Structure formats: C-alpha cells, structure tokens
Amino acid sequence: AQKVTQAQTEISVVEKEDVTLDCVYETRDTTYYxxxxxxxxxxxxxxxxxxxxxxxxxxISGRYSWNFQKSTSSFNFTITASQVVDSAxxxxxxxPPLTGGxxxxxxxxxxxxxxxx
Amino acid sequence: DxxxxxxxxxxITATGQRVTLRCSPRSGDLSVYWYQQSLDQGLQxxxxxYNGEERAKGNILERFSAQQFPDLHSELNLSxxxxxxxxxxxxxxxxxxxxxxxQYFGPGxxxxxx
Lengths: 117, 114
Prior knowledge:
The complex is a heterodimer of chains A (117) and B (114).
Chain A: E1 3-5, E2 10-14, E3 19-21, E4 24-26, E5 33-39, E6 46-52, E7 59-61, E8 64-69, E9 74-79, E10 88-94, E11 106-107, E12 111-116
Chain B: E1 5-7, E2 10-13, E3 19-24, E4 31-38, E5 42-50, E6 53-57, E7 64-68, E8 74-78, E9 87-94, E10 104-105, E11 109-113
Parallel strand pairs in B: 2-11
Antiparallel strand pairs in B: 1-3, 3-8, 4-5, 4-9, 5-6, 7-8, 9-10, 9-11
C-alpha cells in the first residue's frame, strides 16, 4: 500500500525566513513519481513539481527547491526567503504503480504554512 | 489558471437532496478525476475516467456516481445527501490515463449540506 506522511501540520515563519516542508512516502514500487501541490486560501490546488524516482538530482525553481532522497524515502520542499504570498497548505502526493491501471494520487495530509510580516 | 473548469463554485442544499457537479477538462486532456477534500478525510480520490470509460475507482460511495461524456466533460452526481458529504470536490484532468502524467486541478465546488 502507498502512504504519504507530512508530519508537520502547521508551520509559522516570519517573512524572509527559509522554511522546509517534510514529506516521507512509502511504496513497494521501484518506479514512481512524486508531486507537490499548493493550496492557497482561495482553495484551488496548484501543481508545483513532479519528480521521477530514478532521478535524484535536486531541483531549484526560483525560491523553491526540492530535495529527493530515495534512501530515506523523502521528498522535502524548501522555500527560500519566504513571502506572505507563500502562505498556503502544501500537499505532497505519490503516483500509483506503473501497472497500466489508473492514476489515483495518494496525498499526504498537508502542511499549513503561515508566513507573517 | 489550470484550464480545468468546474461549476458551480458553491452549492448549498439540504439532506436527502441530489446535486450534480460539472467539470470540463483542459483542452486536449482525455482523463478526468474526481477528488473529495474534507476536514476529517483529507484529499481522497473518488473516480477516474479516460475517454469516456471508467479507469479507476477509489472510496466512492454508492450514493455517488459519475460519467464522462463524448465531449469529455464529466459530471459527478451525489444523491441522498448527508451532512457528512459537505466538502470541497475537485475535478482534475490529465493528457494520459496513467502515471507519470501530471493532474491539473480545477478550482473546486464547495458543497454544503444543511
């Protein structure tokens, strides 16, 4: 069975601080895909990144960076120099096995990030 | 804007009633997904369609049903509504039916059952 754990329920930081959101996953599949989505207060789910299990290179996109470590089954997300607009709930998700079936995503419970002035 | 549209944005109804939520996928996407987000259950997958056919099923209640039409839009029907069905219902779409294709989510329909 697949599982995604986001142990941090809520994180509060002051603007310009760096913050890391943790994501730990469980899967028996050898090839899988991990995702991060952002849910701002307006409610929509915004896709941020997709990462393949066979590519452990870290990725950076502006103030966002992702650290994928297969050895610890973690896919952590860091926001550098946080801003108030980063305040949102962030979800980590895991793709199903590559069995030719459907594409049900397994989501973690989310981390509420509050960035204050 | 993901390109996925959902109507209505908000829906208030009473217990025992039936409602229909509508979703139009991104242009070119053949697969549509429905998810439910509630405080106690989190984000849960309900059902997936690909080009009109059911592809995968999650913990969808028997009171709920969905379909994807030839023009690829999808509808989620919720009947005999209960208070616990109050939630945010998301539709997502993707180009292909399986991983690793990315799912793009619509803005959601917020359902309140009174």
